[in-house]
Amino acid sequence: MIPSISLFRFVGIPLGCLLGWILLAGCGREVQKPKESAVARPAESPPAGQAEPVQTFPQLPPWENREEVATEITRLKESLSEDEARLAIRDLLFNLAFFRPELAAPFLSEIQSGDDRERFLGMLVARWGEIDPEKLFRWGQDSLTGSEQMRVSRDALEALAKADPVAAATLVDELPFSEARLYAVTDIAHTWAVIDLSRAYEWVAGLTDDEEREWGLSTLSRALARERPDLARTLMESEESSGVREAMARALAGEQSESDSALDFVRSLPSELQAAASDEIAQRLSRRDPELALKYLEGADDAQMEIAGLRWAWTEILQRDPARAAASFSEFDSQEGVKEEMAPWLATMWYNVDSEGASRWVSELPDGEMRDLAIEGLVRALRFEDPDMADAWANDIADETRRQAVLQSLSYDRIVPRIE
After folding, report:
1. Cβ–Cβ contacts within 10 Å for residue 384, how many?
2. For residues 304, 307, 309 and 315, what is the CA-based torsion angle, rounded to 10 degrees?
3. I want to staple 186 with a disulfide (CB 3.0 to 4.6 A). Which of 21, 219, 260, 272 is the partner?
4. What is the mean pLDDT of residues 104-125?
5. What is the pTM of this model?
6. Is the pLDDT reported for residue 416 higher than 80?
C-alpha cells in the first residue's frame, strides 16, 4: 500500500502542474474573435436633409480580382435592405479605391450621380494617378464619357507629365480634337515647363494644330518671359496668332511691372498690345500695393488704359480699406472723362462692400454731374435690394433728363419681374 503522501507526490503534484499549465496557457492566449467582414455593418440612413457620411476603412481589402468584388457586392444586395446595401457598397468601393483603384474602377456604376460619385471618382483618380497614370488614362478613355472623361484624362496626363512628360505628350495624340485635348496640351506644357522649359517649348512649337499651338505657347508665356525674354519678345513680334502675341506682351509686361521703366515698356509695344500690357502691370501692382498702381496709371497716355487699371486698383482698395476710396478718387489725376466713367462703377462696387461708406461718400459730393453719376451707381446697387431707397436716391439727381431716365428704368423693374 502506497502511503498517502506518496500518492500525492506521484499523482497529485503532476496533476496539479498539468492543470496549472493549462490555466496559464489559457490566460496567455488571446480570445479568438469571429472573423469580421471587410465591410463593416452599414451605417444607418441619416436624417432627412443631412449628407450621408462616407465610411472609411484602414484594412486592406481581401479581394484579389474583379469576380470576388462582384460576388461581395451581390451578397450585400441580397442580404441587406436597399438603403443598407447602397451604403455598404459605397463604403466598400471607397475603401477599395484607396488600396486597389484599378479593382474599384469597373464598379463606378454602382455609385449613382451626386456627391458620393464625385468624391469616389476623385479618390480613384488621385490614387491611381500616383500608381499608374497611363492605365488611368486608358480606363477613362474606354469607360467614361463627357465631363468625367475630360476630368480623368486631364488628371492622368498631368500626373504622367510629372514623371514622364514625353509619354504624356505622346498620349495627347490619342485624344480626338476637342476642348479636352486643348486643356491636356496646356496642362502638360505647364508641368513640363517646370521640369525643362526648353523641351516643353520645343514640343509646343512643333504642334501642327494652330489652336493647340496657341494654347500651348500662351501657357508657356510667363515662363518664357521670365527665363527666356528674348524668345518671348520674338514670339510677341512674329507670331501670326493674336492670342500668342497678347499672351507674350502680358507676360513681358508682368516682368517689368515693378521697374521704373514699366510705362516706357508699354509705349514701346505695338499699339494693339499696349492695352493688354498696361492692364497686366496695373493688375500686378494693385495686388502688391494699389497706391503703386495709381501712381503708374497717372502717367498713362490712354483713357481706356486708365479706366481698366483703375478697376484693379480701386477694387483692391475697397477690399483692404474702403474708407480710403473717397480720398483716392478725389486725389487721382485722371485724363478727361475717366472719373466720370468711373464714378458710377465705384459707387456700385463700394456699396457692395460698405453700404454706409458708399452712401456717405455720394451724399458728400458737391452738386453736379459727378454726384449725379455716383447716384446712378448707388441706384444700380439698390434697385433690386431696396427699390424704395433706390427711388429716393434717384429723385436726388439734379439733372432733370438724367433723373427721369433713371426713374423710368426703376418703374420698368416693377412691371417686368427680375429674371434670376
Report:
1. 11
2. -160
3. 219
4. 93
5. 0.74
6. no
